[in-house]
Amino acid sequence: MSRGTLVIVGAGPRGTGLIERIAANAPELYAGSGLSREGFDIHLVDPYPPGAGRIWREAQSPLLWMNSHAEDVTMFTDETVTMEGPVRPGPTLHEWAGIDGATFADRQLQGAYLRWVHEQAVAALPDGVRVHHHPRRALRISGSRDGRQQVWLEDRPRPLLADLVVLSLGHLDAELDADQGELAAYAETHGLVHLPPDFTADSDLSALAPGEPVLVRGFGLAFVDLMVLLTEGRGGRYEGDTYVPSGREPVLYVGSRRGVPYHSKIGYEWTGERPPLPRFFGPAEVAELLARPGGFDFRRDVWPLVEKELGFAHYHRLFDVHPERTSGAWADFEEKYAAAEGEAEIHALVASAVPDPADRLDLTALDRPLEGVRYGSYEEFQEGLRGYVEQDLSRRHDPSYSPDLAVFLGLLSVYGQLIRLGGAPPWWHGFFSYLASGPPGPRLRQLLALSRAGVLKFVGADMSVSAEGGVFRATSATVPGAFVEARALVEARLPEPTVGRARDTLLRELHADGAAETPDGLLRVDPADGRILDRNGRPHPRRFALGPYTDGRTPGAFTRPRTGGPAFRQNDATARAALLFLGAAAGRAAA
After folding, report:
1. What are the tens digits of pLDDT across the range 293-319?
2. Which residues pair with 152 in a beta bridge?
3. Is 4-174+497-590 in CATH node 3.20.20.70?
4. CATH homologous superfamily, domain 178-262+439-491
5. Alpha-carbon gap, residue 525 to 294, rounded angstroms
6. Domain ranges of the chain
7. Phi, psi torsion values for 358, nearest 5 degrees
8. Whole-prediction pTM value?
9. How far is CA 335 from CA 324, 349, 410, in A?
10. Spatial separation of the C-alpha atoms in residues 451 and 459, rounded to whole Å
11. What pLDDT digit, counting tens, does each position of 524-543 carry?
């Protein structure tokens, strides 16, 4: 009988998490089966180091940080993860590294942690399971649904033969969209610089000349990395709240759809009772939505449930910890909140029970803080946006506004339900990241210092970029009539992980072979175990996919402890499905 073979394409945190779950489930599903008599092979395909992968590899600038506290980063399960397999606890990043839990560790340290986790996961595999790393890219997969799969690698004439293939590819490069393509073509024709969406640590920033204006489209985490590499990375330094330039920095003009940076990470710890979540958007509501004969619309049917869930988390905390800022008892408010239907009825209830508007949750205002706001000049806007960032920093580090942290917990709960629902549109993931996955507070204080030093300037909301007169031109509704011109443009965001525009030939070949995509271009997978679905909705028996390019995307491959870890639940389900499949195949071969 031949040994079973599992090929995992992508050896970063997601691939490592899958191996950890295979090792955890092996005592139940491997020991004593036909599979255990012969063992099986795991082939890891990734040009980057196992454990860290591309994004978290140790070989990158030590100036780049994680955007989570070290105590909020774990690769190990706990009892809050809903899964069939056993819990296998392990250290958080701060416990493993022996550092202060409130530290924002650099990515080199996180890469070392992930390498260690990978080594521990491999060591925990049963006897007879061998792991092989192939530092190459996978190009395509062939093979029938009922037979062994062939995984073709670059610079290798013969394919890897696999009983099962799991794609855990992480963030992918993408072809330019139509707008970016036009701007890139204009730049090539006119000798300009256009840097496309990319993982910033991999971008060649040498073309951005000292002192020259650079338009930056994107105000999220990719922008923060760009900001760091073009300032401290070029020899600048901070003296308290003052930035001392090296003279090698360009002048960054940054804008985006919202026109503001992502909200700061919250800078205090949770105390007291957590909101009892889920309350208004849980398994029962997901089941009802999935059972609707005509399907459902996210904005019409799902978003109101999300809003009510987040509001419940917010007001539960406010009434529990700050009752002096409310009128009436929580029990009375909760009963009326549960019965309220529609936005207007909920708003009226909240207005009557929460006197200060600053204590009310307004997701629309949070999402678009510059909506309808106008400034007479860019100079006035610089001062106004600095004030906005300073207020955000103050609030996100003040525990008297701890309902904000309750909303964060609500967002995590909602994310878990959306995965069960079969995913969410891309704008939801952007909204989640903007509220819940922003930069460390110190990064925004650096941003303010750079603004005061004139190295960083704000363009505004709904930033529009055109190419005319041999330059790029940026305008914004925030400062009517004003514009900024530059010979360089940076698209400061990660590429969109769509099947149609992925540079990865593996995904394009899968799509050509019949794999389904969502209307937003994500690879469709079975929410139960990650099997890739075809265009008729059939799950492929031998192909699985996990990660941000699928409609089962999660907030990340790792998470903060005791928050349910949706990625861990997915890893567990896929690991169990793989072990059961390999065990059944071994049993048939032995019969």
Report:
1. 989 999 999 999 999 999 999 999 999
2. 140
3. no
4. FAD/NAD(P)-binding domain (3.50.50.60)
5. 20
6. 4-174+497-590, 178-262+439-491, 283-374+399-436
7. -65, -20
8. 0.94
9. 20, 11, 19
10. 12
11. 999 999 999 999 999 999 99
